[in-house]
Amino acid sequence: MSAENAVPHRLRADGRQPDHEFDDPSEMLFRRIRSGSWPISNDNLHFLIDVPTTSVARERYCEQPADVLYTDKSRKATGVVGWRVGDVPAVVEEKASKVFLRVVHCPENDFYPHAEIRCVAEPDSVTPFKPDKESRLRIRRTMSLLAMLLIEPR
Asked: Sheet holding 114-120: strands in order across?
C-alpha cells in the first residue's frame, strides 16, 4: 500500500479495547460502496448489506465519512452510505421468523472504528446468525430504505 493510501495513525487500534457503548442514537455508521451500488435497486441490494454481518465504521472514531475508504484495499469503493445507530432496527420480522440486529464494535488492528451490524438469533447475543433467504431479503430492503448517501460513488 502506498504512503498516500496508508491508514492514518489516528485510525489504528494501538492497543485500544472495543467500545461496546452505542448510547448516542445519532452516531453514524459509515459503509463504503462502489460505483453501481447507488441508487439502490433490487439488483444491487447485496452490495449494500451483507448478511449476516455488514462491516461499518463508527463515526465516534472517524474524522469524516471518507475515513472508511481507507479499508478498501482494492481501491474500487469511492462512495459512502450511512445509518444512524438509532435507526438500525432491533428486530426484523418476516412471516413467522424474527431476526435481531445488533451493532457490535469489533476494532481491527489497522482500523479501530470497525464495527458490524450483525444478524443474531437472540436479542442479547453477539454471535452472527445467517437467517433464511426471505429474512435476508427483508433485512436488505429494510436497511436500504434507511441508508443515507454521504459521498456519491464515482
From this structure: 91-94, 97-105, 114-120, 53-58, 28-34, 77-84, 148-151
Distance of CA 10 to the CA centre of its chain: 20
Q: Which amino acid, one-letter code, is at 38? A: W
Mean pLDDT along residues 76-89: 92
| End-to-end CA separation in angstroms for the chain | 21
What is the residue type of 54?
T
For the chain, give the number of residues: 154
Contact 87, 96 (CB under 8 A): no
CA-to-CA distance for 112 and 125, rounded, in angstroms?
A: 22
Q: What is the pTM of this model?
A: 0.90
